[in-house]
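Checked the freezer inventory, then went back to the computational side. Two predictions to log before the end of the day. The first one is the construct we discussed on Monday; recording sequence and tokens without edits.
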Amino acid sequence: MLLVFILGGEYLLLHGSSIFIQLSGILGLAFGVVMTFFELLVQFLQAFIFPLLTALYTSDAVSAERLIGEAAAHQGPVYIRTSRPKTPVIYDNAEQFPIGGLKVLRQGADDTATVIGAGVTLFEALKAYDALKEKGVHIRVIDLYSVQPVDAVSLIEAGRATGGRLITVEDHYIAGGLGDAVARAVAPAGLAVTSATCRIGPAIA
């Protein structure tokens, strides 16, 4: 059964993503029109207010299909953020995306930092990998598609393997965004996170 919810109706025209919420086997969907500036302010921050809410961020068509399936099967509320831009497909059709996981897309023995993206910012991280590789600098790139719950063990392992240098690429407020999620996960290991913001698309006057 598909039920349509209007969540945060006052923000409906500001959201550029999809929200899927499952309650007692019912899948809810809310959607809106992209307005980049405003959506930075509300999305993951809203999700983090509810500790039992699962928050997922898709990067391509394959991850979107798999994560929607994961959300439908999950017992509990689920928030999915999708991207409006036409992003390239980077995952094989057989790839699985369990809730609470992540994907390491680039890694090597001589990585000097771990760069973490999700959704559209993942592609900025991959661009940085290519640019730095040409200069002889190697970084690890992670797709943190499951923002809540987060794979703290893998993030800590990556941080330790790359000299404690963890960088998140944000398309969100620093507060309540990807950086906050990673910082909370790695803090018990004594690791810190640097957050870099990137603007996707044109600025809004």
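The second is the one RB wanted added to the comparison set:
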Amino acid sequence: MKRRYFNKLISASALTSLPIMGTADSKSWSLEANIAECCSCAIPCPCNFGRSTKFKCDGTRLIEISQGYIDGSNLAGIRFIVTFEMGKWSRIYADNEMNQNQINGFNQILPLAFKGFAKQAKSIEKTSLMVERERNLIKFSSPQSEIEMKPLLGMDGGLIKIDGLPYKTFYNYIQYESVKHNHSSLGTKWSHSGTNGFTSKMIVSG
């Protein structure tokens, strides 16, 4: 599957059927989330510009919902990590520090705002996550994935900011590069460094 189509699925508002999910297709929803991601593509990743890649794309994305609602319920504070092979599978790790209301909101919003990841999920589990932000380094991990990423600096040592990308996942896009991007799960293992990374804001509704 081309990443162009996959990115559209991630933000789609149609319901996908997962055993643990509720049937929230008739509910209105909206959210803003902070995104951090590394993948195996060279910098810059063509997928985020609406161009597909002919190479395998291994990725890990941190999603932290800063504000939002579904059918009147608050989505703020929902946090999870998705590790994936683009277009083929994903593994979703929900933060075990979320309260029950946040878990309920996660179960409802996942198949709506993140349909591509939900539809291809091999596993969805509640587990311990680590997220650390330093001035020039972002670190996040789940039990099976570990990411460290740093800004790719541009003119006069400033951040490289990109506007106008064709997906609602990529507002306020800032270019990063991976320092460490490791994953190990049943039948899958990778280790990347110096590959594409970014932070952005996701703003979607349905």
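For RB: The radius of gyration is 16 Å. The first helix runs from residue 3 to 10. Let me know if you want it refolded.
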